[in-house]
């Protein structure tokens, strides 16, 4: 496993980090301790690599185990079975029973995982982000209606036209409390109207990625589903695959493989007897990640077969893998930083030389941020406008992983758009959380404790740490909590001017 992390709160961005030495981590994802994946992990590849990733396209998503206790699906009992990798060993057992127990219920310890396929293969979306500090979006991005210009109440507008006072502030003093409230609400909506084009683009920039349509571009990110062969069906039998819950259905994609080709499965897709008899090879991915107050990543897939007057059904539960941040217990692979100010030239040059001397796998990556303005100055603080993370699930040859770049919850920080424009590829995705956060949402305020055990409780993926000030918490905290894995810790950082945790804590190996 590899990681992007930061070197303290200077002009730097991140460091690509290497192997996770912890068998306990795999228990979070359901992988047996000691069964370290030996296959290449896409997280360890170059950020901009668009070549082959860890599994060849023709490798089956489901690798049957040797028979143990067969699970027949015969016409006599008219039993149908759909399976996923519920025991998290990277395979779907269609001939035995290792994926049967508890498959209809998802828990932290068992139940199939799948990935949010938010990478950008061949920079299909990224290449259409242009303009000053990634401010313009091409036609490939979903269209969003802009609000109409607000209109002031006619009676109040007439009062304003006929006023004797020279300024708005003087006029407001003579208005009734009711008129003041009406006028202030109008000003608020007017401000929102003028800000809308920029804010809409900030929202739209994350809406184009590999799973934003129904085209499969990278099948390695499909989690496997299989139906048990049912040779006893008649030739008139038909079947369907559907997702419970309208919200969940809108967040996932299902595909069916036949003749070596993947086909998107619509809600009304009908499978024919020949395919049902042989058993279906299916794959699932997600269009989004777990969100606070929204979809929590859970999905139940139902398999239904009708043969004459008889009908049978079965289901399996899955959940999208959590987005995890990365920690200091991993070896550096690449540094990222920002340029844009003449005074940084020497620093960037020295950093590049240090990276080379250290023998890092990849050269220094430099954001050119000369047009990215934040807080009345150039935004050179790469550590603050994004945080690297990842998602992983067990696969037949080891972990299948996607690196995820997390934009800070600061909608008015344009540099955050750069992660969508520059860092995404067929192995790297990006996401953002809503909010116009202040300094607490700069991601220099986010640190990750390496995996540890305390009072008998194991934190196999480590724990995140964010600072707060009084009653004010970072918007990002809710997103971290929604992942339900790294148990965020909140620290009081009100005593610091910038209020960032990276100014006073760091974790080092001993």
TrEMBL record:
Pfam families: PAD. One of its GO terms (cellular component) is cytoplasm. Gene3D superfamilies: L-arginine/glycine Amidinotransferase, Chain A. Residues 39-49 have a biased composition (Basic and acidic residues). Residues 312-510 form the Protein-arginine deiminase C-terminal domain. Residues 39-70, 144-163 are annotated as: Disordered. GO terms for molecular function: calcium ion binding; protein-arginine deiminase activity. Coiled coil: none annotated. InterPro entries: PAD, PAD_C, PAD_central_sf. This is Protein-arginine deiminase type-1. It comes from Metarhizium brunneum. The gene is PADI1_1.
């Amino acid at each position: 496993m590899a990681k992007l992390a930061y070197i303290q709160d200077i002009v730097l961005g991140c460091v690509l980090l290497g192997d996770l030495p912890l068998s306990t981590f795999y228990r979070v994802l359901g992988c047996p301790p000691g069964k370290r994946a030996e296959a290449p992990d896409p997280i360890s590849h170059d950020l901009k690599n668009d070549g082959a990733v860890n599994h060849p396209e023709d490798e089956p998503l489901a690798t049957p185990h040797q028979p143990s206790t067969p699970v027949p699906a015969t016409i006599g009992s008219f039993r149908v079975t759909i399976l996923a990798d519920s025991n998290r060993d990277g395979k779907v057992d269609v001939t035995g029973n290792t994926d049967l127990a508890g498959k209809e219920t998802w828990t932290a310890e068992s139940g199939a995982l799948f990935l949010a396929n938010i990478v950008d293969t061949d920079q299909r979306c990224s290449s259409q982000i242009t303009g000053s500090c990634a401010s313009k979006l091409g036609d490939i991005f979903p269209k969003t209606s802009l609000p109409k210009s607000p209109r002031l109440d006619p009676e109040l507008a007439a009062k304003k036209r006929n006023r004797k006072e020279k300024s708005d502030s003087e006029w407001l003093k003579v208005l009734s409390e009711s008129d003041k409230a009406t006028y202030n609400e109008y000003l608020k909506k007017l401000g929102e109207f003028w800000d809308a084009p920029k804010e809409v683009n900030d929202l739209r920039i994350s809406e184009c990625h590999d799973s934003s349509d129904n085209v499969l571009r990278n099948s390695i990110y499909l989690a496997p589903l299989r139906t048990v062969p049912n040779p006893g069906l008649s030739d008139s039998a038909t079947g369907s695959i559907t997702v419970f819950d309208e919200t969940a259905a809108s967040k996932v994609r299902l595909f069916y493989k036949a003749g070596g080709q993947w086909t998107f499965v619509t809600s009304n897709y009908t499978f024919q007897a020949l395919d049902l008899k042989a058993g279906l090879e299916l794959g699932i991915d997600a269009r989004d990640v777990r969100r606070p107050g929204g979809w929590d990543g859970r999905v139940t897939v139902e398999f239904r077969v009708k043969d004459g007057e008889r009908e049978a059904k079965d289901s399996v539960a899955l959940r999208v893998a959590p987005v995890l941040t990365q920690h200091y217990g991993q070896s550096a692979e690449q540094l990222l930083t920002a340029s844009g100010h003449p005074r940084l030239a020497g620093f960037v040059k020295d950093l590049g030389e240090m990276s080379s001397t250290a023998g890092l796998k990849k050269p220094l990556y430099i954001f050119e941020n000369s047009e990215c303005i934040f807080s009345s100055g150039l935004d050179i603080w790469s550590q603050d406008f994004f945080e690297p993370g990842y998602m992983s699930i067990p696969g037949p040859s080891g972990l299948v992983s996607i690196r995820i770049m997390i934009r800070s919850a600061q909608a008015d920080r344009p540099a955050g758009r750069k992660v969508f424009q520059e860092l995404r590829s067929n192995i790297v995705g990006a996401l953002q959380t809503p909010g116009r956060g202040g300094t607490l949402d700069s991601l220099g305020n986010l640190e990750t404790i390496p995996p540890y055990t305390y009072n008998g409780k194991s934190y196999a993926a480590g724990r995140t740490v964010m600072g707060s000030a009084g009653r004010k918490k970072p918007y990002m905290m809710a997103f971290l909590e929604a992942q339900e894995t790294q148990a965020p810790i909140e620290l009081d950082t009100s005593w610091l001017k910038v209020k960032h945790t990276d100014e006073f804590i760091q974790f080092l190996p001993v």
